[in-house]
Design goal:
heterotrimer, A: 194 residues, alpha/beta, Rossmann fold, seven-stranded mixed β-sheet, globular, B: alpha+beta, 13 helices
Amino acid sequence: MSLAGFPNPVLDQQAAFRAVMQALAEPGCIVPSGAMVGEASPLGPVARAIALSLLDFEVRYHLSPSLAAAESDITFHTGSRLADRADEADFAFVDCAHDALDLARYAQGTPEYPDRSTTIILKVESLAGGPTLAIDGPGIPGTRELAIPGLPADFIAQWAANAARAPLGVDLLFTTNEAVLGLPRSTRILGEAR
Amino acid sequence: MYVAVKGGERAIANAHRLLEHERRGDRKVPEIGTDQIEQQLSLAVDRVMSEGSLYDRGLASLAIKQARGDLIEAIFLIRAYRTTLPRFGFSVPLDTGAMAIRRRISSTYKDLPGGQVLGPTFDYTHRLLDFALAAEGEPAAPVTAPVDPEERFPRVTDLIAQDDLIERNPPTDPAKPVGDLTREPLAFPAERDLRLQNLARGDEGFLLALGYSTQRGYGRNHPFVGEIRMGEVEVEFEIPELGLTVALGEVTLTECQMVNQFKGSLTEPAKFTRGYGLSFGHCERRAMSMALVDRALRADELSEERTSPAQDEEFVLSHSDNIQATGFVEHLKLPHYVDFQAELALLRQMRRELTSRNTHPEAAE
Amino acid sequence: MPDAEAARPNPDPRAATMALLARATRKELALPLSAHWPNLAFATIRAPEIGLVMLRGRMGGDGAPFNLGEATVTRAVVELETGERGYGQFLGRDPTRAEQAAILEALAQREADREMVERAVLAPIRQRLQEEAQRKRAETAATRVDFFTLVRAEG
């Protein structure tokens, strides 16, 4: 069953878009979400607001198994269709607490069109308090610390493999119930910070 | 080469003010309302909707007012506005066979089911200026006649098709996505779906000239107007979550079916071929021109030799859009100061060299 | 169309209601709503939004589809307290009318209100559309050519 959409679609979508843009421009920074809607959604209000802002009938999305119940809601509001396979999706939603994460199974883009990779929106409990990793790359003066708790054990290896596919590869948006944090393919994880 | 320069801001702002003032004209004359444009300049509205590629009578009327009646400028405004709106999806293909007919004529068959219905046409006017219009006064109410509720208007091309004397239209291939040049840049060779979309929004003057050229021998294909029909067609849209197809309202369309000769081949009997034109609103000239050009562009498909501009897909499709055309032509007004200075310097140098050769011929050798 | 409902055989009743509401004027929705359902409570599921639908034609009228050009569309979805979801969508730009059409579409699903929606809203719209279509057809019929043969040369 679908939930209520944005009360002010244009302004709310702009606010959500602004937060995503900020998060990708300054990787690793915790950006308060510009718009939230639908607390009851399995995606959580922030990821759902991103879905309602970025998806339309010309893109397809993928849901990790524990988020399957969100389909009718997302399709209703965006006109976007569920992709049969993860590597056919423009956007993917993953619940890190319940589902496995395998970055390699999503679309990686093509050499002519590296932008045709999947943007993965991950649902996590928190964006701070986990093991601290140092990151660097465009949008980061020097280095920055990343401390998302509950990431898969092999996340650092997966992210290194993603970086090795440059300029191809996926981009990540971590979301909680309040905020969003971006990890574009250009960001490197240097290792555990001291 | 362009170099960023600053300045002219105040001049530009004042020019905008002056433009607005000129648009309004003499303030003692009542201001024109967009409702007046919509109702009384309806064919201008139809043209702006067609070439703006956006069916919305109110927006087209506003654009015409803002553009002071410069229709290409109005089309530009509409094209710009449509980019600000999200797209909800595609309609079910419009069924022109179910049109509520307001005009329907055929120049191939005199007596046909439904008959020749003239509707509101300029065709039999004498093109004499009506000075009575310069004064005020209401025209007479239209005449009415009894309507046969069973009356139908079958397509003329369907009548010809009954004897298998005309080619069949290409069937729908569900596996093939419909090309959309607002999403993917035009590439050549273009399929007929893209060509028709391009022509449907193409400049009427350009289409008219090309259509005319085919009649004068530049890609001749012996056209007959199988049928022109104009009237209202219902727009239907699917709501997937309800599993319903619902009507959104109706649009006015003009459709032209050209019937053209085809000589046949050793293996194929001779058959008529088709050219197709479809336009928003009541735009007969444009629908006819589109049909002529559509047929001419099918030269390769029908194994005809391509000898003329109207048959040259790349030429036609690349130059049909009047917003692209006006953008490129009018950009010449932008400052080219540096470009020109470079040319000027080169010219002066060439002249100096010539003078120096002429004065000192031995030095030049 | 001469009659929005006659276009398709056996149209779904909801689709038929939506087709009529799509053709309504502002007054035809606003007046009965305030007269018969003042202070009606509803939740907005999809706030009224204006967008585009690409209109498709067919090559030669009945062949493969092509994209003709877009049209503006406004749509909205609301939910009544009793759970019925109403859809409003039509050509043009009018958020208020989209919401009102959606409310009336929801009311038409509610047993207790169905008859009033039919009587106060749908019937007047249907009648107006029929009259307009009839008038247009009669005006058009008067421009039909009646041929008569002057001289006939037999070959």
